[in-house]
Amino acid sequence: MTATVVMALTGFSAGHKNRDGGDGGGCSSSSQDHDGSSTSTTGGGSSGSGSGSSGSTQKPAQDTPVIVVSCASAGDPYATVKVQNPNDRKVTFTAYVTFLTRQGVPLTERSTQITAPAHGEGTGQIAVGDDALAAQVFRCQALRQAEAMN
């Protein structure tokens, strides 16, 4: 059996919050169909009798935008992020956030895994690191879409 899976990931989605509570931008609410280019080829079977494949194939899970709910600060060294699962099954996503200074200089990039039920929402926290680093954070920015892990 030979299987080839090709996924074309395009697009960029970023949302962020700053320490003053303002939005620095938004997240795209549109979704992309990333499973349109998946193919699976099965060989074998009896000559002249037709061949079929048994079992079902599950489409790859779609990625989703990351929404920054709150940003890290000296008193709260975590960013809170959420994802909305567009899939028909429970999926674990990896969400990425960059922590930035007031001048827009990146301090660090961190990630976390968030599990969300089918067509439901999942929330997670991403630690910036130590308290000294947290004191320098002014804005948190989602880097890209949360990547579906399963």
Please describe what this structure looks like.
By secondary structure, the chain is mainly β. The protein has one helix at 131-134, and strands spanning 2-5, 16-18, 38-41, 66-70, 78-84, 91-100, 106-116, 121-127, 139-142, 147-148. The chain has a single domain (11-27, 60-148), classed as Immunoglobulin-like (Sandwich). It is 3% helix and 38% strand. The strands form three sheets. Strands 2, 6, 7, 9 and 10 form a five-stranded antiparallel sheet that branches. It has a three-stranded antiparallel sheet with strand order 4-5-8, with no helix packed on it.
Mean pLDDT: 74
Overall 3D form: elongated
Provide the structure class: mainly beta
Query: What helical percentage do the residues reach?
Result: under 10%
Strand-and-helix sequence, N→C? EEEEEEEEHEE
Model regions low in confidence, pLDDT < 50 over at least 5 residues: 1-16, 21-52
Radius of gyration from the alpha-carbon trace, in angstroms: 20 Å
Number of strands: 10
Main sheet summary: 5 strands, antiparallel
Number of H/I helices: 1
Measured by DSSP, the beta-strand proportion falls in 35-45%
What is the top-level CATH class? Mainly Beta
What is the name of the CATH topology? Immunoglobulin-like
How far the N terminus sits from the C terminus, by CA atoms, comes to: 22 Å
Number of domains: 1
- Name of the CATH architecture: Sandwich
